[in-house]
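Morning!

This is the sequence you dropped in the shared folder:
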Amino acid sequence: SFRGPGLEEGMKIFEEVKKTFGVPVITDVHEPWQAQPVADVCDIIQLPAFLSRQTDL
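The structure's back. Tokens below.
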């Protein structure tokens, strides 16, 4: 089943939203390797509370 556009395409979408509407972008990450590419685009990164108890985040 479809699970979203993926990290690379998702970041392109977020960049377009920021550029078009001039709003800050917030999202969450689920894996440590996602943090840097997301931080390069998004203004705020959330860590799901339950997930942070189960992973290296």
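Headline: The chain has one domain: 7-52.

More detail when I'm at my desk.
O.
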